[in-house]
């Protein structure tokens, strides 16, 4: 008889008792195959055979997606040109507000490991629950967790061909609930900088890939509005419009009260 599968539970002062409930022995998280929706790059999202380019307010957390079990927030950082931005932080909570995981891309850190045999996390900072300290390494592969009776996820690494870079190591988290299965993946900006490996690494970011969403009719948030699953709000419509360059200002302080007087150039 096979030994029961080990799952890791984390205690969190804000987590309710169901967080300590494990799935039955033998339950496994399975990669469901190609993504049915991709959100990432600078950023774009694909759904139903359509491609949508959108822009979030910089450094501002936005509710990307809410399912019956989870809320997923995303935050972007800017690139070197107007309109270029990438996801640097993603946060996953249960719908009652219980923190599940917070994921950030490691900026300014050179990847030191090229193979998944290394336990050190080179690309991702992963904070479990309300922990103020990120996980430092993969104690085993995969590291599996449960957060309530209907949320399970794993932290893992895989080798993935990336011709622009010397390393094929790719770190990711895989979440599954009855409503959705998705990945949060460490990625480089090779699409934007195909001939510049330094810039591709400088603008490392997070990608969000949905593998399955059998209950998408119950979803809300920015992404379902962009996809057309629910009516678009004016705020989301504005996210589909490219950001305009700032108008230069001409200022003078000739007034006796020392207040500056500015006008558009």
Write the layout of secondary structure elements.
Layout: E1 37-40, E2 44-47, E3 50-53, E4 62-66, E5 70-78, E6 85-94, E7 99-105, E8 124-128, E9 143-146, E10 152-159, E11 169-176, E12 181-187, H1 197-202, E13 205-212, H2 222-227, H3 234-239, E14 249-252, E15 261-264
Antiparallel strand pairs: 1-2, 1-13, 2-3, 4-5, 5-6, 6-7, 7-8, 9-10, 10-11, 11-12, 12-13, 14-15
Walkthrough of the structure:
This protein has 265 residues and is mainly β. It has one domain. It contains 3 helices and 15 strands.
Short structural description:
This protein is mostly beta strands and 265 residues long.
Number of strands: 15
Shape: globular
Describe the oligomeric state of these chains in a short phrase. single chain
Unreliable segments of 5+ consecutive residues: 1-34
Helix content: under 10%
Distance between the termini: 78 Å
Instruction: Please list the strands of the largest sheet in the order they lie side by side.
Output: 3-2-1-13-12-11-10-9
Total separate domains: 1
Structural class, by secondary structure, is mainly beta
Largest sheet: 8 strands, antiparallel
Q: Note the total helix count.
A: 3
Instruction: State which percent range the strand residues make up.
Output: 25-35%
C-alpha Rg, in Å?
21 Å
Q: Mean pLDDT score, rounded?
A: 79
Order of helices and strands: EEEEEEEEEEEEHEHHEE
